[in-house]
Amino acid sequence: MDFNMNLILGQMVLGLVNGVFYAILSLGLSVIFGLLGVINFAHGVFFMLGAFAAYMLGELFGIGYWPALLLVPLIIGALGLVVEVTLIRSLYKLDHLYGLLLTMGLAFAIEGLIRITFGPQGLPYNIPDSLRGAINLGFMFLPYYRAWVVVAGIILCVTVWLVIERTPLGAKLRAATDNPQMVQAFGINVPVMLTLTYAAGVALAGIGGVMAAPIMSVDPAMGTNIVIVVFAVVVIGGMGSIFGSILTGLALGLLEGFTKAVFAEASSTVIFVVMVIVLIARPRGLFGKMA
Amino acid sequence: MLDISKLDAWYGESHVLHGLDMQVPEGKVVSLLGRNGAGKTTTMRTIMGLMGKVRGTLAYNGADLLKMRPDQVARKGIALCPEDRAIFPSLSVHENLMLPPIIAKGGMSVDHIYELFPNIKERATSRGTQLSGGEQQMLAIARILRTGAKFLLLDEPTEGLAPVIVQQISRTLSEIKEMGYTILLVEQNAHFVQGIADVHYLIENGNIVDRLEASEFEKNIAKVDKLLGL
User: Fold this and answer.
1) A2 pLDDT exceeds 70?
2) Number of A–B residue contacts, CB under 8 Å
3) E strands within A54-180?
4) Considering the entire predicted model, what is its pTM?
């Protein structure tokens, strides 16, 4: 094992970049599960579609990264809206397992469709010119783009958390998570709220996809690969816990980076080891509420 | 005016309301008295559109409530204060108060509500579920007064509360009545509704078994007590 401090710090910074993606995705997943009770396995696919949408906007219309960052969540959100209305809505009265199975089928179908259309190989997506280059941190050269991802991702997560915890809209969402029937009896159109929440949750995944496109190659499996880890993050953080999802996502990204530096062979499994330990010691997750 | 006629309602396979008939005139307080399981809460839930399977007539100012979702019923100006008070644990007292949207003009201002319920103001930043039972009940009533709804469904507001709190709620309801609200008050406490309600309906096994004007209530109190199992 190599305990070079610069290597450890460098890998942890790079792990933090992954952690930001985990946080963004687990945040959306957590909001959707909290309000809709749907374990949205298709979340990773919306992340992948976000990356492909950015790629297609560039290829077809010459639309660059920055406009794509605004347009893609709208496109993915609209797609999520259609999915919720046509597929997810019929499952609300059934066990969570049905939602998981349906979204799993949906994920594999969409991924297959993208693979047929674009091929299995990853497609390149360029870093925007304004974020080329790197900064010397002393222990590593950190590309500006990755620094941007960390800062923008954390700001995005904190903003979503503030909206949910500190605004009247967030209060409605939290109340509907506690008791949707009563919230509807107050005159709030809960079915529309559920649709918009699903759309917003997958739009977040879409933003994550755009941000990931220049780092990961844009390929059909990128969503499925990451969603497995994100599910572990949500389980560790606590199902339905927004704060837990953000913090756990970032922390596990750091842990993954640290493990990569000290024992690289275990880096892809360490998160799942933590998940097993948490499930045994504290089944509701680190920040989850008692059932 | 709420007009209920030949109303049937089911929980799954369980038939709970059996052709229930009653009217709640505008500006009046009407009580619905009965034992546990008689169908009182089901009547409230049916009015709010919260029951799955229903049949009969349920008209509010001519509008057919049976065809509406709960949010559409609420938008007609009908507000429910449920038996369990439905205080949201993840919301502060103030957030609980502000949660229901304003559905019509003429609702109480927050200042007026805080004047009417000073305890709620003092605990505004606490979690809703950290309030005492009486404070939670006041919050649940205050919450619907803000919305501008003029027809209030109050489901056992005195349940489990200390006598001093019951008196306080009684005074509050009298004040609300003076303001012209229409109230359907579900209760098991006959003495609580006696001084407030204009009309009393007695319910048993999902059906109305008697209707008493306020003036007839005292001389029929033995019958009421028997129905309530006292």
Assistant:
1) no
2) 61
3) 134-136, 141-143
4) 0.89
